[in-house]
Amino acid sequence: MSRLSHTDEAGAARMVDVGDKSVTKRVAVAEAQVRMLPATAELIKSNSLKKGDVLAAARLAGVMAAKKTSDLIPLCHPLAITSALVDFSWVSENVIAITATVKVDGKTGVEMEALTAASVAGLTIYDMAKAVDKNMEITGLRLLSKEGGKSGSYSRTDAQEDKN
Q1: Residue 161 in 3-state DSSP?
Q2: Which of these CATH numbers, 3.40.1380.10, 3.40.50.1820, 3.30.70.640, 3.30.360.10, describes 41-148?
Q3: Given 36, 73, 85, 124, which is the most exposed site by the fewest CB atoms within 10 A?
Q4: Among all residues, which ones are annotated catalytic?
């Protein structure tokens, strides 16, 4: 069994040395969902919450989080992200899906940036609507796909098919 890339021979945490890696185009897509009361969803859809436009704030928070990931996750490299997009879609009456897509031309991937963007966008939705619904749940945070780098492409759908 190979050891984890973020540990040394003694098992201590370390930042991975990417100095000898080639710069490649890298893309990662992550998602999360926020489950809420139907009445809360209606308030968000109609932009009727006192704090303002929930999805606009969550979109900006997600983009900002992607750019600050290395400040939050100790062993992440700071990256010059070329694009960070956060989109929303209602998957049911009371569940909104958050999709974060992050791109970089770099020596290391942007999976953590995409996951962080989706997570913080979900937290922002919670923060904006908690006054009317403290029972909201942020669920399903996961990597959907990644492209670029030495390990190549990954797609969650492909991985799920391999398991079956």
Answers
A1: helix
A2: 3.30.70.640
A3: 73
A4: 127
